[in-house]
Each structure stands twice: as structure tokens, then as C-alpha cells.
Description:
Blueprint: H1 14-18, H2 44-47, H3 54-61, E1 74-78, H4 85-99, E2 102-106, H5 113-122, E3 129-132, H6 134-144, H7 158-161, E4 164-165, E5 168-169, E6 172-184, H8 185-192, H9 204-216, E7 223-224, H10 229-242, H11 248-260, H12 269-283, H13 296-305, E8 310-314, H14 318-321, E9 331-334, E10 351-361, H15 368-383, H16 385-394, H17 411-421, E11 425-426, H18 436-448, H19 454-466
Parallel strand pairs: 1-2, 1-3, 7-8, 10-11
Antiparallel strand pairs: 3-10, 4-5, 6-8, 6-9, 6-10
Amino acid sequence: MKKLISTVTAVVITAAMLTSCSTAGSTSTTTASTKEQAVSENSIQSSAESSETETETDESASSSTNRQDFSGVSIEMLNTKSEIQSQLEDAAKQWSELTGATLEVYTIGSGSPSQEISARYAANNAPALIMGDIQDIVDVSSENAVDLSDQSWAENGGTKYGYSADGKLYSFPFCIEARGLMYNKTVIEETLGESWDPSSITNLDDFKALLDKLVAAGMTSPVALNAEDWSNAGHYFTLVYEEQDGTLEGAESFINGLKDGSQTLSENARFNSLMDTYDVLMAYNINKDDPLAADYDENAADLAEGEIAFWFNGNWAWAEISDYIEDDTQLGIMPVVQNDTEGNANVNSYLAGSASKHIMVDKTCNDEQQQAAAKDFLDWLVNTPEGVKVMVEDCSLVPPFSNITEEANNDLGISVQQYSNAGQLFPGVTDYPGDHWSTVGAIMQKYLGGQIDRTEFANEVQAYWETQE
């Protein structure tokens, strides 16, 4: 979920999405290779009948050295997790050497995933592999996505975490990501001169008392808040929806109530409880003198190096933190604690998380060979030791597939795995309007900057939802 960037609702050129796109995609100049031998089609089917364990079956089924020959096939992949661009480029080279295909991985320098996807469909040249947030996939999948239900990984977590509609599986769930209060356990204990257990923080009062102890011990500002709209609206404010009663149905019901006016945001208990916590984070924010000028990388460095103790963010931030952290520093993620648990007793023991990035295979702009090659790349990622290494070790992801049993390679990922394995993740809403992050984010930035108060903030967000269908 890194940078759930603002998306623009596609009033998009529907006709363009429905027309046949030019086939071929883009040709890569960086990942071309030629396979020496043509091999028989993916061996998953035959090995699936083996009586070996699930992991052994998956590894033998999709042997890295036994893949279909895709020589001469060129495909593109849109990557919307820019922090792992180089890792995915390396993965594309490995896979290309095995298959003879050309896979170019590209990311966007500006704009949003939704804008990029819409523009590519309007130009009739969408990439074969499209990574996006769930709402990006929802917007375009019914007309343009390949049904992936027959893929081996579907039964190992793909169907559970991927996007399905009308009995079809339209996405490969790329990773599980969760967000909460990231902490530096090492610096907390060093500052306080005593051991500290994150489970001792059971509500906002406990948290504020800890912050006061840290300040008294010499840590002037123990917290960092991001300025970006995607962090504020896409990561923090969405907790208001997700934590109404902790169910997807409850979140959607609340959103519908905001739309039709039957729910008043300013009077909602969860909204006010989360904003109470946000106000505490603002008060102890290392960036509070100019909160809208906060630098994301500096926040990462401050947590890693012990300048601060807490940073609201998610496990994807390991990509930046790892540049600064020392080997013996212990990090983790804990829930965004609150005092009011009415209607949801789990708010102080759950993280908000789900499969945050999804990959669909395009069928409108890519021919059958390109579609087959795209599916083979996804299969290679999840069903071979080399592909699993890319996801777990190289990209530091938490894959959602049950056949991948490797532990995450960093403290943040391990925290998320623990909450996920315990069933302590609130599910995420999948169908936010495309402009939610940018519009609500801009409103929240005004609140963060002290330009409006809580009532004004709530009224502006309420007005936004009342314009939605």
C-alpha cells in the first residue's frame, strides 16, 4: 500500500476501454534474453497430483528450469510500488532468461496509478501486467482483465485475498501490508532505561503517558507524522471507515450513510476517537513547527536512528528505513490505540491491513501469447524458490500465499505476519471513489496545518461524501 496516491475518477473514455488495443505492448531494451530450449507447457498440472506436501508440490510444479518458451514475446508491467522498482527489474531479467520473453517493468514518476491506467487504455496500449491498488483494478477489470481462477496459486490465497467479481478472479494479490504505529523498541528502552512491552499500551491514555515519559527523559518529540495526502487520507483516515465495527459490511454501511446523510461524521464515535489519537500525534510531532513540510525519508531515518520512537505508517516503509537502521535495532508495529472502544472492542488489538497491491493480466491490449507469458511470470513469482526469494528477501514483502512459509526478513514484516496469522487485521474497503485520497487528503492537510478545526474538517469530508453516488 505504499503511497496510496490520489486517484482521479475515470469519467474515462469508456469506448476506448472497450475497443481492441494494439497488441505487442512496449518492447524492452533492458530485459531481453533468449531461451536455449523450448520446454513443455507449465508443469503445475501434472505435479499437483503428487502426494508430497504443498510446499514441495509447488516447488516441483513450477521448476525454474522447466518453463514454457516465450521467445519473441514482449510484455510490459506497470509497477506502482516504486520502492521495489530495481528488484522487479532484476526479477524480470531472471524470468526472461528462463523463458526467452522480454519483460519491461516501469513505474510512474508523477500522477496516480488510476490516471496512468486510464491513459494507457485510452491510448489502446495497456501493459500486460497492471499493478494497482484494489480500486484501480475494480475500475477496469470487468472489461479488460483475464480470469485467473484456473491458476495454481488461486487456491493458496489468491481467491481469498485477490479481487473477484461474478465468479471470476481478476487479480493476483501481490502482498499483505498493514498500517499502525511503528515503533523503535530499542530507543524507547534506551531512553527510559527500562524494558518496554508494546502490549502494555492498551489505550490512548497509556500511549500519552508513555510519550510524556519519553519527553521527560530527553526525547523532545517522540512522534513523526507524514504530510502526504495518501498517508493522511489513504492510510489514517480510512481507519474511520474500517474500524466502525471491524467488518467490511460495517465500513460500507457507514460510507453509504455518509452519502445519504443518515450518518453525521462529526458525531460519530469512531471518527472522534481516532481524531483524539491524531491530535496527540500532532502534539508530539517532530515536524509540528511546519507539519506540511515534513520529509518522508527524514521521518524514516528518524525512526531508524532513534530520533523519534513512533511513526504512523506501514510495513512497506522498510524499504526506506533499511537504508538507515543498525542491525541490533528492534522495530515493530502496534495498533492505533484509542480510548473509545464502543462498537468495536478490537480497535486496540488489531492492525488495519489486507492485500494492498494487486496485479491484473490485460486481455484487451495483449494477445494470447502475451497473456500466457504474463501469467507465467506471476506463477514463477509464487511457485519457485527464486520467485519467492524475490518477494520475501529482495522486496521485503509479506506474500498472502499459504505455500510460502518463509518468515519475513525484517521486523515490520514479522509484526504484520504475526497479526495476520492471528486473524487480527481489519479488512480494507475496496471501492473508494477515485478522488478520495486527493480530496479528503487535502482537507486533512488543512487540519494538520491548523487551518481548520475538527468540526470544519468533519463538515468538509461529509460534504465530499454527499456528492458521491
